[in-house]
Specification:
This protein has 943 residues and is mainly beta. 10% of the residues lie in helices and 40% in strands. Bound molecules: 1-methylethyl 1-thio-beta-D-galactopyranoside (IPT).
Length: 943
Amino acid sequence: MIKLAPRTRFFYYNDLATALAYKEAASPYTHSLNGTWQFCYLQSPREVPEAFIAGDYDAIDWQTIKVPGHMELQGYGKPNYTNISFPIPVDPEATPAKNPTGLYFRRFTFKQQLARQILRFDGVDSTFKVWLNGQLVGDGHGSRLMTEFDVTDLLVSGENTIAVQVQKWSQYSFLEDQDQWWLSGIFRDVTIVDEGGLDDLQITPQYQKGQWQIEVEVQANTQLSGKVYFADEPIAETVLPAGKTVFTIPKPHEWTDETPNLYTLVVEDETAGALVPMRFGLRRVEMIDDQICLNGVPVLFNGVNRHEFNPETGRALTQDYILSEVTQIKRAGINAIRTSHYPNTPYFYDVCDELGLLVIDECDLETHGMYVTEMPTDDPYWQGEFVSRAERMVHRDFNHPSIVIWSLGNESDFGPNHVAQAAAIRRLDPSRLIHYEGDRETEVADMYSTMYTSVEDIEKRAVKLTHQKPHILCEYGHAMGNGAGSLQDYQDVFRLYKSVQGGFIWEWKDHGLKQDTLDGPKYVWGGAFGEPVNDGTFCIDGLVRPDRVPSPGLLEYEHVIQPFQFFVAQNHVVVKNLYHFQTTQDMVLRWRLEVAGEKVAGGQVALPALEPGALSPVLALDLPETIGADALLDLSVQTTTQQGVFEAGAQLASDQVAYQGLPAQPDAPTTVSQTAAMVTITRGPLTVTVDRGTGNITQLAQAGAQLLAGDMALTLDRLPISNDMNVVAERQKKRIATLFARCESIQLTQNDDTVMLAIRQRVAPPAINWGIELAVTLWVSAAGVTIYTKGWFDGEKPTEVPRIGYQLPLTTTVKAVDWFGRGLGESYPDSLDAAPLGHYQLNRDQWGFPYVVPQESGNRMGVRWATIMTAQGSNLHVDGLNPLNLNVVGGDGQPLGNQSADQVRLDARVQALGSNSCGPLPLKRYRLYTDPFDFTVTLSLQK
Ligand code: IPT
C-alpha cells in the first residue's frame, strides 16, 4: 500500500550529535518541500484543467503561494470566522457547488540515499490529492493529522515534480467544526523523508518493582540495535528485534512538568547505517484513589486551552513562534495545555516535552454545527472516521511524555462512535487516560469534565462522598475581552477538594487576524470579511492579544496559580512550595515595607531548598519597630540563578499584606512537643495545645493557669432573638448548633522563637450534607497566638447563619471587659448608630441588656482590641487585624447571669436583627450569607 498506516513520526540521521540535538532540518535524510510553490486558485474542483490531471504543468497559468500557509491569507479567497454554525449548508453528502480549490505545483531535485522515501504531509485543510512526476500518489484528509505515502518507486534521482490539489470543503469539514477561522491549504510542513527499514517505534515507560523500564516496540525487517542516552551519555543498550524489548533504566530521572528530564533512544539501523532518535520520559499517569496522578502524585491542572494561531499566518506556525509562545505560557506558571480542539503541529509536543507542560492531546473532531440535522456520533457511517482520527493521533504522538491524556474531541455530543473511539485508544495505548467532556456519565472517560461550571456547582459535586471520577474543567474562565473574573475563587475550590483537579482557561490567545489599514495595523474578528454567517468577537477571547501582549487577565491568572504561598504574622514570614515535584533551590524572598506609598525598609532573605508542598522555616524579617499607619509589606520569591525558562532574578510569586507592626514582648524560649493526639507549643509562660483529631485549639494556658474549658471552635449559633422566630426552624433543620470538626492536615514550621501551624479542617453537622472547609494559620510568637481563618461553606448549606466565629469556653467567669470598638451598648449590623467607636470598659453585669424574654444580646462591633478580665485572674487580650465582633455570654450560651463559667465569642460577622417577628427580615445588605469568609485574631494572656 502506498499510503502508510498510521505510525509514529520520526526522522533518520547520519551522525549521533545531530540525532541527539533532534534538529531534523539538519539531517541529510530530511528533504523539506516547504517554500514557494506555483499556485492556481479555482472556484470549484470542476474547474481543474485537464492539463493538470495529465501532468502538463507548463500549460497552467500559475501564480505563487507560500507553503506552509493558508490560501485565504495569501489573497486566494477570504477567511470566515464561525464558532458553531457552518457557513455552508449542513449536508455532508453534497459539498457546496462553489468550493475553493487550490492547485499547487513545484519542481525539486532529489537524490535517494536510503532504501525508502516517504512523502509526509503534516497538515492540509481539508482534503487533497497528490501527484509525483505526473503519477497519482493518493489522497488525504483529516486536516490536523499526518498523511504519509511511500513514494520510493515514484521518485527519481535528479529533477522531480510534485502537484497537489486541495479543496476547502469536503464531507470531513462537518467533523472539523472547531471555533476558529475557516482557513484552508497546505498549512503544515511537506517533507520527503529518506528511511531505512524501521517502520514504527513505540516507547512505553513502565514502573515495576521500584524500577523504571521502557518497553520498546519496533516494526522492522532489518537489523536494529538501540542505545539510551541521558544528557548525551549512553546509559543502556541492546539489540532490537522486531517486537517488544525491555530496557531497564539505571539511576532514573523522572519526567514531570516541573522536572522535564528527557531521555533519547537512538535506534541504529545497522542495515542502513543510519540512526533514528526518539525522545521519551519516565513518567506514569494513572488513577490512584479516584485522582489523576503523575508518578504517584495527584495533579492540579493550571491550564489553558490553546488554538494554533498567528495573526498573520493563521494556523501555519514556525518553530520559532511555537517555541516562544510555549515559553511564554511556561513563564506564566501555567502547567497544562489542552490542544483545543485538534492535534497540533508536531514540533509543539517536542517543546512541551522539553519545557515541561502537561498536554491533553485532542482529536480533530468537533461536530456541533451538525446537530441541526443529525448527531454523527450515533451514525454508523461516521464510525470508521471517528476511530481512525483517534488512532492517527495516538500513533503520531505516542512517544511524547508531555501528553498525559487523550481527548476524543470537543462538542460532538456523546454516543456509540465515541465509545468505539475510546476502545481503539485503550487498545493502542493503555498507558494514558481518556478525556471527553461530552461523556457526562463518564462511561468511557477517566475523568468527569465540564465547561464553565459555576464555583457553587463544582462544590456541590465535590462534597459528595461516594467514590467518583475526578472533576476537571476542560474550559472555564472565559477570557473574552476584559475577564475572566473569579479565577481565585475557582483556584480555591481546586485546592480545597481532592476530587477537583483544576482546569483550563478558555483560552490562551485572541485569534484576531491582522489587517493593515490607513491608521496602521489592527486585529479583526468575525464579519470583517463580509461573512454572512459569523460569530463576531467570540474569537477575541484570550488571555493574550493576537500579538501576545498579556492582558490583565493573564496577570491575574499568573498570580492565582503562582507556585508559592506566603504566610505572614508581624515580622515573620513562612513560604510554602506549592510545586508538586520540584524541590526549590536558589530562590530568595524579597520584601519591601512601605508607608503611605513610600518605601521605609526592604531586604532579602535566602530561601532554603524546599521539598514539594513543604513550608519554609519561620523567616524573621528585620523590620522597623515603629511605623506609621497604612504600612504594607510586599513580598516576592525570585530566582537567583537561571532555572528552566526563568532567568536569574525572575519573580515567581508575590503577595502583599497589611503590616501589623512588631509586638512588644521579648524573645522567649519556644518548644514544641508532638504526640499522635496533640501538638503542644510552649513559648515562655504561654502554652497552646492543638488537637490533631479536630484541628481545634484545646487549651490556652499562662504559667499553668488554663483558660479554656473546652475547644476553641468555629461555631455559627447564638441564642435566637424574638425577631428570629420565623427562621429558627430552618436553623434547626440545618443543624447549625451541632458542628463536628475534623482535621484534614496539619503542617508545622518554626524558628527558635516562633512556631506556625497550617491547619486544614472540615466542620460539618451530623446527618445532613453541608460543611465548611477551613484553612487556619496559627502562629505562636511574641505577639501571642495569631489565628488567620479562611472558610468556605459548601454542599446543601444554609443560606444564612446567625454568626461566624470562634467560641472560647472559659474555665472561669468574665469580670470586666476593656475594649476599643463600638460601645458603650451593644451593636448589630442594622442597629449600630447609637454605638460610636471608642475606648470603653464595662463590668460583667453591665455587658448585655436584660431583655424580658432571654435572648441574644451584648455583641460589640468594630472591635480593634479588647482585654477580658477574668475572675481567675489571668486576662485574655484580643487584637483584631481587622475589626471584630466581640461578645461574652454564659458558658451555657444563655445571657450572662449566675453561671460559674462564661464564654467569649470572637466573630468575623454576625447576623442583623430586622423586625421579622411581625415585619420584614433584615435588609439584604446586612444579612449574613454563607459566602466565603476570613478573619484574624491575636490572643495573648496576661497574668
Ligand atoms: C465552547 C467551545 O468548546 C469552545 O471551542 C469555544 O467555542 C467556547 O465555547 C466559546 O468561546 S462550547 C460552548 C457551547 C460552551
